[in-house]
Amino acid sequence: MARVGVFVCYCGANIADFIDVPAVVEEAKKIKEVKISVLYKYMCSDPGQGMIRDAIVQNRLTSVVVAACSPRMHEKTFRKALSDAGMNPYMLEVANIREHSSWVHQKDKKAATEKANDLIRMAIAKSIANEQLHEISVPVTKRALVIGGGIAGIQAALDIADARIPVTLVEKSPSIGGRMAQLDETFPTLDCSQCILTPKMVDVASHPYIELIPYSEVIELDGYVGNYKAKIKKKASYVDFSSCTGCGACTQKCPVKVPNEFNMNIDKRKAIYTPFPQAVPNKPVIDATHCTMLLKGKCGICAKVCEKGSINFKMVDEVIEREVGAVVIATGYDLWDPKPYEEYGVGRYKDIITSLEFERMVSASGPTNGVPIRPSDGKVPKNVVFIKCIGSRDEAKGIEYCSKICCMYTAKHAILLHHKVHDSHAYIFYMDIRAAGKGYEEFVKRAQVETAATYLRGRVSKIYKKGDKLMVRGEDAQIGQVVEVEADLVVLATAVIAPKDNPSLARLLGVSYDKYGYMSEAHPKLRPVETAKAGIFLAGCTQAPKDIPDTVAQASACAAKVCGLFAGDTLKKDPMVSTINNEFCSGCQNCVKVCPYQAIVTEEIPLGHGSKELRTVAKINEGVCQGCGSCVAICRSMAINLAGFTDPQIINEIVAI
Amino acid sequence: MITLGLLEKNTFLEAVNKKSGANVLECYQCGKCVSTCPVSSYMDFPPREIMQMIKLGLKEESYMANSMWFCLTCSACSGRCPREIDIPAVMEAIRHLAIEENYRSENKKVKDIRKFHDIFLDMIKRYGRNYELRMMAEFNIRTRNLFKDMHLAPKALLKGKIPIGHESTKSAKAIQRMFKLAGKLEKEKR
């Protein structure tokens, strides 16, 4: 015979003010299985839990009902109290009389009390049919997959590998380094970006626990937390990396010139190329869309000059598989195309460039050897106008959000301009100066006071050409007048946007993304590093615009999460999963279709005992199953049972109302 | 509309900074000075705007403004300025520069204020200290407003608020020498 204990919580005034709790306690006592029914101010407190533990032992209880807040809040707390008292933790039922009754029926105490009584009766009835359940152990593959080799991916890979966990780092382009490799100096300290990044890149290449797979993409991810299986497409590079020494003879001799995307198309690269001199790995790849040998079968000079014979024009894409336990997404960001700003003459006037183009120009290793020039005539500009919020905070043309980094890099650009061209002057049109970060406000002050950059508060309304100058018209709200600046060069701080491949990658990985294409975190405040899918984590701008310190911090946080996940040999999982009764399963596979987690597959079993004929039945992977119950509801033959929510439990609940 | 060219050398800003000892570039346009200033509502450009105009090199507009003439030099603004800019010194610098460069506002109030300054200095030069009754009389004559505040005169005189004669100071001669020397230095400078 079942022996149930009922523990009703005041929750301070949260429940007691709107529900007649003493009456509820008395009502529960009327049920014959209830051996003890008590009341306490805060059941979740240590003495409250002690009460439950003592009652279990003294009254030899077989199940426990706690009438308190949502099980999302304290189910784990009370389960632990049960197991501390030697009881199976899954013999607990929580009647949520706070969110489901006191909070929503504050105006009618009588009705709220009645509803609480109902909820408790249901919980008691259900708990009588509860079965003892045990946590499921899932084995873990201790290898992490990091997607993206920018600073976020590099940092995450290094931190995970330093904990002696093998990492596979997949990078889409021929070299790791990402956006940070394109930067000249970094705010707010003006460290040389390459100087602080390249040692990390080299560390990645030489780390015994990191497997670097450049020029490749993840094309498939199956499985579940601790047991993912990734398919990685290695794009044909037409260069055998194992024998190539990176001497560069092929890139020198290649006759085909194409715009250099690393330098924002300001200069040209060859069809066989390494993206930049410090590339890791420092091996060239052939751009198949431009190589005349691959397109027309003519040329092949690179193969002739290569002493090692590393060039292989017959190379094809290769798909490899890796088993991993966790995934870190670090795909970075793209920049918004300012073409819709027609009033600025974007596209018409050559001397309007984007911030990343300016960044490449002022970079010592950039296409202009560190000197900014006007694209129209190659002259060094004196008056440079920087315009912030291009696309950012612009619902009409761009995106609603603030790109976060533009205020700071524009201040940096003003300072760099002054360093490179001493007799120049920077004008900055801005809407707000958002300099929240360590040393950031001081950095902006440096741009304003030391560099004497002129900050004009207002959005530019139009730009027109006058002689060889660009006239930039905007309001200076500080003095309430329209101003026109004669500019030699205009630099647009274009918005940070999610990479265009993010949505397709998100679907492939089974994680969610927001309306802008950024990967969604599990909770905006308390779980900013995890995705809703267990074992998949987010680092850097793939989640939202971020500066380098924030990106690195999040990448390290990902590493901590991965290390935590891999700390034991198995993962513990709630036992609330579905099981199939093969005898009843008709093999209709409706459950396969409705399962949102792809947890159900099919298998072939003998038609009868000892029979050679086979029939199809559904099979549930309990590692993937999240216990949502969709399959139970769709199953026509009632062959599926969800532990913790069995038919007898549900029927008991319904009868008790 | 204001057209801004190359500010490679903002000479106006440099002159103001040099004369005032402040750095106008430090101003980040918070406007605390404006709400602190007791007379900002009478100014055509309140202190914050004057600072921005200096930054933009708008010399003429700054010289023709009435702001620096209305400034009482009470230093309430600089006392509260989060960037600790000596705003009264900046106002003073513009006053000096405007006079040096012969900018004269045709605004009646500015003209009167300038006359007030001139008469006051004249009193000091003559007597070594202010001679209030004469100052009032001269101000009323020179501003062509003879009977200004006249109705207050009997009461003030009876109460002894305005002494009829002037009290001479011991150092009147020394002060006159100072004026002479200052005049000589100024000529040399030019």
Residues in helix, % of chain A: 25-40%
Largest interface: A-B, 23 and 22 residues
Count, helices of chain B: 11
What Rg of chain B, in angstroms, do the CA atoms define?
A: 19 Å
- Helix count of chain A equals 18
Classified by CATH, the class of the largest domain in chain A is Alpha Beta
CATH class group of the largest domain in chain B: Mainly Alpha
Shape assignment of chain B: globular
Oligomeric state of shown chains:
heterodimer
Radius of gyration of chain A: 32 Å
Strand order of the largest sheet of chain A: 10-7-6-18-29
Judged by helices, strands and strand pairing, the structural class of chain B is mainly alpha
Helical proportion of chain B, percent range: 55-70%
Residue stretches of chain A low in confidence (pLDDT < 50, at least 5 long) are none
Q: Total domains of chain B, how many?
A: 2
CATH architecture of the largest domain in chain B: Orthogonal Bundle
Written description of the protein model:
The complex is a heterodimer of chains A (657) and B (190). By secondary structure, chain A is α/β, with parallel strands linked by helices. Helices cover 28% and strands 25% of the residues of chain A. Chain A has four domains: 4-128, Rossmann fold (3-Layer(aba) Sandwich), CATH 3.40.50; 144-332 and 498-565, FAD/NAD(P)-binding domain, CATH 3.50.50.60; 336-497, 3-Layer(bba) Sandwich (FAD/NAD(P)-binding domain); 578-656, Alpha-Beta Plaits. With 190 residues, chain B is mainly alpha-helical. Chain B has two domains: 11-100, Orthogonal Bundle (Fumarate Reductase Iron-sulfur Protein, Chain B, domain 2); 108-189, no CATH class. Chain B has eleven helices and one strand. Chain B has helices spanning 11-20, 32-36, 47-55, 59-64, 67-70, 76-80, 87-100, 108-127, 132-142, 153-158, 172-189; one strand spanning 2-4. The longest helix of chain B is centred in the middle third of the chain and has 20 residues, at 108-127. Chain B is globular and about 60 Å long. Chain B starts with a strand and ends with a helix. The interface between A and B is medium-sized, with 23 and 22 residues.
